[in-house]
Amino acid sequence: MDRALYGREAVLDEYGLAARLTGITPYSFAPAGYEHGDDPPVTVFTGGRGMGKTALLKQIRNAYRGGTPLALLDCAHIEPPLDHGPGWNPLTGALAELAVQLSPRVLTAKPVEFPRLALGLAAVAVTGWSQEDDDRARRDLQRLGPVLATVDEAKGAAGTWVSKVLAKLAATAAESTAPLAGLLAEATVETVMEEVFGRSQRKSRAWYGSYRNAGGRGELGLHQLAVDFERGGRRQEEAEGFLVGALVEDVRQAYVGLTRRGTRRGRPVVLLDNAHLPLGRRLVEPVLRDRSAGSRDQLVIVASSRDGDHEGLRRATRKRLPEVAHKAGWERGADITSGILAVELTPLSAAHTRAVFDRYDPEGCAPADLSRAVHRLTGGRPLAVALLGRAAGGVPAGSRGGLTPGALLDLTVELREDSAAVPVADTLLGELLPPGVRPDVAAVLAAAHDEESARVLARTRLRGASAEGDMALLVRDALRADGWPEGGGHFVADPLLRALLLHRLRFHDADPPAHAAWRAVHETLHRHYGPGPAPDRLRQDLALGRTEEAVTELRLTFPGPDVPGWLDRLRVVASAPYPREHRHTGPDPRRAVALGEDPGGPLPDGLDADATALHLGLRRLLHAVWLLTDPLALPDDDVVDKLVHELRQLSGRHLTGTSTLWDAATHWPRDIRAWRGLTVPPGREDGV
Asked: 3-state class of 305 per DSSP?
């Protein structure tokens, strides 16, 4: 069943981008008209992990399946067959899979046949073969069966042709002292044509006459193709590109053949997930080259790329998703890569996030601000929004009123009816963390503020975790390569990824109340920033549940002339991750302190009445800012009002900073209610 793809209407509406590329509407397959005539761009959806690229491709597949020839291939998951020979590689495996998926009969149209591709794959299948490994050659040939079945289902699937090919190969190998690749290719192709192909299909061999050094003779082209494939390097790339062209030509012929003219509606579709990987480039670049040279075909290629700055997109027409809802505005230029329309998938809006939560919580039992808080935490990343919305819907209606973003991370969620529920935080982390990065290692480094402190943690807490070098730099490079943001006072800058890693750091060892791993990491950072009361050191105090040194430092530095600097230190200290308890129910303990309902601990000795009042006020203010800026918590109007009161009280106390503190009392509540970070100086549009 299709899932709702909020915010993706620009692609899947009745006359959205997909309809204008294929010429038919999704689901109903009614004529829609072609935006780009006979020269469609290769469309590449770009976006980081969790931005919904895979889900969108699957939705396009569901919308057009049965209406036009269609294939979906994940370039990250082409599984090599057991004990394959050098005639198989990811590209030949991918081409065979695409042909099989594209071949079935669709609405009012005959199956697509792939005789040219079948001949090319047959020519390279026995590359590297010798009489000592004919069992391997038999397996490699048998794997051609599904592609040959697109030419003749009975003969291709029967496999009787395999024994005849092996017999001819053995005779050829025994009689020749010349390099075998080309000769074996000729013997294989001849047998396949005799045993599987009909008379009309045998003409497809002539297409290889345009291959290098073939001189118009198809048999020589196939011979040279096999030789080049075996050579490797640039020659193999040329051979692979020609095999891609064979698939495209077979599809084209299915649309222009005289006996089939007018019987097909719309264009065929190839969907390539993770096309930023080398295999994706090897599949797409030959098509781009041929189209740039003037070749025209019927194929609609829609791909996804996690790397929006990929070299292969250097001259692409770049659009954001909403911009292509009615017209793509793409034009071909002189550069080959201008044949690409790169569409950046935009995050879900707050309204889309609310719609997701309304779907799973139609009674509205969850807090009104929960969806907006989830939007702030996730940045509108569709994968996370959908999973957290589903998790909220799985909570009994009577218990949803106490949900917060942090509470959602503590839950488990059923992704499939036939499998057990899985932890929300671990599932999200598994989807978002770059491959090769160990979650336990990244969780330690997520506590760091910058690269320097991350390297301190790597040296002290992660010794022996890698023999390849500094773990902090390895993780930094992996995050960069994966497109994650940097900076903002955190080594792991993205709020969602950092929250997931810190969740793992605190709760993975299941050792409350000690939380040994959490304490060890934050104590290490505390020592690193010591012994003075630097904001980063005080932030570690808060992460360890200790607030008094921070309150004391804020009290001692409050009279100083640099009030914006003092507010910024308050903001930095209060950005500490809160050491919360797993599945805690009831109000956040910081709330009672912020409201003055809980004194928050004893007072320091030796304070007079004025200093005592200031100390208590700053304790309330610190807890208010800590709670209100926590991405795992919900805003609280009572605490916001208390924040305003405390800042105005401080405004009356300060000799020179009255105006700045009063502005903070005005603008910080606006920042909080607008779901943005606190601005410093208060109210500055480009403030932090």
From this structure: strand
Distance CA 119, CA 128 (A): 17
Q: Which two tokens stand for residue 293?
A: 């040279």
CA distance 561 to 572: 19
> Do residues 30 and 289 touch, judged by C-beta distance below 8 A?
no
The Cα–Cα gap between 343 and 47 comes to: 9
Q: Does the bond joining 635 to the residue before it have cis omega, within 30 degrees of 0?
A: no
Measure the CA dihedral 377/383/386/388, to 10°.
-40
* Cα–Cα distances in angstroms (integers) from residue 255 to residues 34, 118, 258, 297, in the given order: 16, 18, 9, 9
Residue owning tokens 């808060």: 542
Whether 321 and 297 have beta carbons less than 8 Å apart is answered as: no
Give the pLDDT confidence score for residue 258 in this predicted structure: 41
What is the Cα–Cα distance from 78 to 332, expressed in whole angstroms? 31
pTM: 0.91
Total residues found in the chain within this entry: 688
Q: Is 212 left (phi over 0), alpha (psi -120 to 50) or beta?
A: beta
Torsion of the alpha carbons at 131, 136, 137 and 143, rounded to the nearest 10 = 170
Residue 9 CA to residue 329 CA, distance in Å, equals 18
% of the chain at pLDDT higher than 90? 76
Of 4-8, 46-50, 677-681, least confident by mean pLDDT is: 4-8
5-14, 21-30, 150-159: range with lowest mean pLDDT: 150-159
CA 683 to centroid of chain Cα atoms: 35
User: What is the CB-side half-sphere exposure of residue 225 using CA atoms within 13 A?
Assistant: 34
42: which strand partners? 340
Counting Cβ atoms within 10 Å, is residue 13 exposed (0-12), middle (13-18) or buried (19+)?
middle
